[in-house]
Amino acid sequence: MKMNDVLYRRLRHLFDSQLIAVLSTSKDDQPYVCLVSFVVDEEMDFLIFSTRRNRLKYHHIEANPRVSLIIDDRRNIPVDLHEATSVTIFGIATDTKDEEKGICTDLLLSRHQNLTNFVNHPDTAVIKVDIEKMYVVSDFESVKVVEA
Q1: Which of 98, 92, 99 lies closest to 128 in space, CA to CA?
Q2: Residue 32 domain-assigned?
Q3: Of the candidates 83, 86, 91, 115, which lies 20 to 30 Å from 136 by C-alpha distance?
Q4: Element of type H or E holding 9
Q5: Residue 105 maps to which CATH number?
């Protein structure tokens, strides 16, 4: 991703400080939103999460791999409206295989060691979202667009 150093550090801090993202998928014009544990690679080119293959989000991704996620640092207090930072990520999600799955699994588990049994289960997919664009919103109305 192309961005200046200040924005990179701000995003890196956000991604490193938050454990949960909100994932949005869609199938047959029916949206679905859920929480996922995630990790973003150092260059911010992709995001990784895991899910069981029998889950609704997985079936939506199979039908329509275009997804969005939002990650934010709100604290659920009134000043969040003016002080919180949120990032909406748009990208293409794929179920990783073989060597790529191993690399993505290692990266995800380096951040979420508590998910080891879940991630290593045979019915669990390790999903890689190739990031196409990010909208970074801060200070209530400041919006920056970052594109691949």
Answers
A1: 92
A2: yes
A3: 115
A4: helix 5-17
A5: 2.30.110.10
CB 72 within 8 A of CB 84: yes
Q: Tell me how far apart the alpha carbons of residues 74 and 83 are, in angstroms, rounded to a whole number.
A: 8
131's tokens = 């990031």
62 is a domain residue? yes
Residue 7 to residue 9: CA distance in whole angstroms? 5
Residue by residue, pLDDT tens for the chain (148 residues) are: 788 899 999 999 999 999 999 999 999 999 999 999 999 999 999 999 999 999 999 999 999 999 999 999 999 998 888 889 999 999 999 999 999 999 999 999 999 999 999 999 999 999 999 999 999 998 877 888 999 8
What count of residues does the chain have? 148
Main-chain dihedrals φ then ψ at residue 74, nearest 5 degrees: -65, 155
Task: Report how far apart, in Å, the C-alpha atoms of 22 and of each of 33, 102, 122 are.
Answer: 7, 24, 24
SS3 assignment, position 51: strand
Is 22 within the bounds of a domain?
A: yes
In this structure, are residues 134 and 145 in contact, taking their beta carbons and an 8 Å threshold? yes
